[in-house]
Amino acid sequence: MLKESVDGLAVKPHGTYVDVTFGGGGHSREILSRLGGKGRLIALDQDAEAEAGPGAAVFGDRRFTLVRGSFRFLRGYLRYHGVEEVDGILGDLGVSWRQLDAAERGFSFRFDAPLDMRMNRQGGCTAEELLNARSVQELSRIFAGYGELSNAAKVARLVDAARRQSRITTTGALVEALRPLIPPLGEHKYLAKLFQALRIEVNQEMPALAQMLEQAAKVLKVGGRLAVITYHSLEDRMVKNFIRCGSVSGRTEKDAYGRLIAPLQAVNRKVVAPQEAEIRTNTRARSAKLRIAQKI
Q: Do residues 45 and 115 touch, judged by C-beta distance below 8 A?
């Protein structure tokens, strides 16, 4: 949904914009194509490999700045670069194909590889460390909350039994340890949920998203736009709640006159889904949802 998301920003030629998930640079290139000579784009990505990816073509553009870091520190990075307010912010929350297809990153169960799953490989806890150190109760919480697995407690107990025999170090070893619980007719979907849960916990994606949304509402100018593409219900619910009532939890606050306190207003009342043509060429887009909001 490249065109739909950038269209949602209503790019002003002389405006200042932020792409909080640079990735392969597709959205950044499209935003730059709509900016004039005085426009500015700041992009963020915590994955060092983004700098060597296909998006590198924009690095020579004087209107463009790439920041190596997590979007959870959005406001701080903008201030460092002398920016207090922006006209639009775009986020594509999906894991890039480069990360999924790089076996050594450990994001996919399609390969037998080290259990890493870190977006930023310079630090932090790996999936291997998480699986072998967390309590059964903590693992159950992760699999239930972030993977929405109905048998999360059984999964946690099976992981615990396997690691007592031998440290779980690879994606293949994890899959084999859980083989008794994997449904034969829904293996792909089941493992996708399991790996999603681990990736979210490793990268602290939910707290990071909450922080980014809260800061986005502060740095957007009145009339500025926020466009966010999500890929699973947990993310989408947080974005929807924040746009609706200014809180990722969905709790509402009202002023002394009983009016809802919310910094944003939805532009697209109905979530935007990818076109069939895009899904045919990119099956990973099938679960994408785009929400657009405006600062009021």
A: no
Q: In which residue ranges of the chain is pLDDT below 50?
A: none
Distance of CA 192 to the CA centre of its chain: 16
3 state SS of 279: helix
Domain ranges in the chain are 2-97+205-295, 106-203
Question: What does the alpha-carbon distance between residue 126 and residue 203 come to, in Å, rounded to a whole number?
Answer: 9
pTM score, whole prediction: 0.93
Tell me whether residue 255 is exposed, middle or buried, using C-beta atoms within 10 angstroms of its C-beta: 0 to 12, 13 to 18, 19 or more. exposed
Structural class in CATH, domain 2-97+205-295: alpha beta
Nearest Cα neighbor of 120 from 101, 104, 136, 105 is 105
**What pLDDT digit, counting tens, does each position of 31-48 carry?**
999 999 999 999 999 998
Q: Among 248, 245, 214, 239, which residue's Cα sits nearest to residue 75?
A: 214
Distances (CA, A) of 223 to 17, 140, 263, 296: 13, 43, 11, 6
Q: What is the CATH number of domain 106-203?
A: 1.10.150.170
